[in-house]
Specification:
Radius of gyration: 16 Å
CATH topology of the largest domain: Chitinase A, domain 3
Low-confidence stretches: 1-27
Order of helices and strands: HHHEEEEEHEE
Structural class: alpha+beta
Number of helices: 4
Mean pLDDT: 84
CATH class of the largest domain: Alpha Beta
Helix content: 10-25%
Number of strands: 7
CATH architecture of the largest domain: Roll
Largest sheet: 7 strands, antiparallel
Length: about 160
């Protein structure tokens, strides 16, 4: 992955944390840069994508451990990358260098539904319709319409 892609991401997103990545061409940096690229199937989920009754679609990119998954009351630790349907990455935990922690109840409906399907170590790609994302949310800085997220669930706290 070239520095040109990182600089393009900087120009498109204005994401200052990517500047450090652009200045260090290590293997980890290349891996992160590749993971920040929009997927080829951004606009159209593949035929094997599972559709839930709400309209959320997903594919399993990597399976983790068997065992229990999070509950709606859980606090989750995840890595994620989000793209709008024009292919612009609008948010990611990867450039920060450590997973993000969130109470699941405080996240968009598409994440609340989708993360409950995951187990630690899983990586899923979600196609989230606007009504399960930020449509109807106040704020000009939230992307509207359908969104695509790659999410890796590292761990969760039970929330009890």
């Amino acid at each position: 992955m070239s520095h040109r892609i990182l600089f393009l991401l900087l120009a498109l997103t204005g994401a200052a944390p990517l500047m450090a990545l652009a200045q260090s061409p290590s293997a980890d940096t290349r891996s992160i840069a590749e993971r920040l690229q929009p997927p080829d199937n951004l606009r159209l989920p593949p035929a094997n994508a599972i559709r839930t009754p709400s309209g959320l679609r997903y594919v399993i990119l990597k399976r983790g451990k068997d065992g229990p998954g999070p509950t709606p009351e859980s606090t989750i630790e995840i890595d994620y990358v989000g793209w709008d349907f024009q292919g612009r990455m609008f948010d990611s935990s990867l450039p920060r260098g450590s997973p993000s922690r969130f109470p699941l109840r405080g996240l968009i409906k598409g994440w609340q539904e989708g993360v409950l399907l995951m187990r630690p170590g899983d990586t899923f790609r979600f196609w989230i319709p606007g009504n399960l994302a930020y449509d109807g949310s106040p704020g000009a800085d939230t992307p509207k319409g359908k969104l695509v997220f790659d999410i890796t669930l590292h761990s969760f706290d039970s929330g009890n």
